[in-house]
Amino acid sequence: MKNKMMTGAIIAVVMLSAAVLFWYFSPSNVSISSLEEPKELVIEQLSFLTINLQNNASEDVNVTINVKNAFVDEKGMSLKGSIFWVEDNSSWLQINATEKPQKEVRLKPGSNRIDAQIGYQLAGTQTVEVDVYQLGKLADSRTIELNVLKPTIEVLLEKYESRNGTNEIHSVYGYLQLRGKGYAPGVAVNISVIDEVTNATVKTVTRGYSLHSEEDIPYSSQPLVIWQNRIFTYDPVTGAKIDTQTDTYSPIVVIELAEGESSTEKYARSPVVVKGKMGDRYKVVVTATWVDQVISSEMKIPSSPPTYELSYPYRRFRSER
User: Looking at the domain assignment, is residue 19 inside a domain?
Assistant: First the structure.
């Protein structure tokens, strides 16, 4: 009797093991047909990775999807959580999985499309792995490499010269430019005026900016100093409210060179104002820093007379004007 019980137990264990092995190694009804990356992916921009799934079963099935490396911060750390958009009866349902990286999704028989939201604060190649589980078993897995592009920043300086009585007024306008689609938040711009004789910094200031370029215009330019003024007026007949906004682009640097006494003008709309004497020479240096990009542009005040090198046989002569 005891031997029969042991034999029965052994047979039960073997059959259970065989059933588990058969379940584990049997092919799943669900597979990943393809992964579709966005046409262009840029830093600091949310986009979607399309996951095409095939359900070969004759009924709806529940699967669990895990998207690894969907979000990466500026330090290169992968953030937990996933956001899926699932097509359901010609509409889209948003499914958030912010606490757990895996989320259960119901698949209909046939082809199913799921969009997983992705976003990166670090440029370069990002490897994304998509795992699909059915009843706790890995049904299919795919990886894809995404190239995250980063726009470039530029600094442009323009000069305007005028006179205030006998004093020379040298105004420098600055523009921060973004080339390429995407966003550039937290751009630090340092504006400095340097005495060219002593090489000492006369005045300096640092300001913060954020740039972005539109989807169809991969180029953005922003003046470094903008003063906005809004005026509200009312139509005396209908009482309609009229909102008028005026943007004033001001110089980033104003340098006044006086023959005698400096003027009392404060040039309050400019962040850097220097008052010197005729004969003083300065250098305006503007440096923009964003992530790993450091771009500088400089301008001498007053400008040096242009020098032209002549071709032979007049090479020994130099013309200045």
Answer: no
